[in-house]
Amino acid sequence: MTSRTHRSDAASLRELAENRMLPDHQVMDRPTLDWIAGMRPEVSAAPPTLPHPPLMLVPDVTWFAEPRCADSIHGVRHNARVSLLSSVLAQEYGLDRDHRAALCAAAAVHDCRRHNDRDDPGHGRRAAAWLTGNHAAVTGLIGRELPQDVLAQAATAVSLHDVPYERFTPQQNQLYQRAPHLIDLLKAADCLDRYRLPLARWWPDPSHLRLVPPAWLHAVAHALVVRSEQGRLDGASSHGALIHARQIIDPAR
Fold it and tell me: In 3D, which of 213, 206, 239, 253 has the Cα closest to residue 75?
């Protein structure tokens, strides 16, 4: 497979962001990734040894509503990294096996119904509907069936992941009460993968969360972005780049 090159005359995502000219569909480039790699968060502590190997579900490209989004900053690699970060957070906060798997599934599809890489209001609701209708394909990759009530909680988490807490309607607040832990953890994992974005002011801000990720996980999340996106730019498949990147958390893999 040939590597993806960045033309010297093409503006990088970072340049486009600085000039408020980002296109609807945004793909990582080397200059932007080089800048991200040079802005590594301070390492506060070594990652702990997890009691269980973390799950990482790599979504199939056919799950995406817009084919151009599959390789974009909200595509396969983003959703897979969020699934891995969700799995780590689920163990940190003591979720049981079914809810850990459900959170991993929710994270792997949370952006699959996007039409573009902008705000795209309603993409969470669309992804939740897709998960409800296609849960067998998703849980099949995890290798286990999940109870219907747990699947419903996963869909609720997906439907609300793109809605800020302060903008919840009364109905959404009622939905939140049905799956608060899944919603809080999915929002936290999604936030941690913001290290892929081309401006530092868009990077993770825990003040927007109800569940604050452990400090050590920030450096891990940043490293996951750098290693997986570097692998893709070097010509690896998304799946191969992600498997290599997950060794940051799970060296045995």
Answer: 239
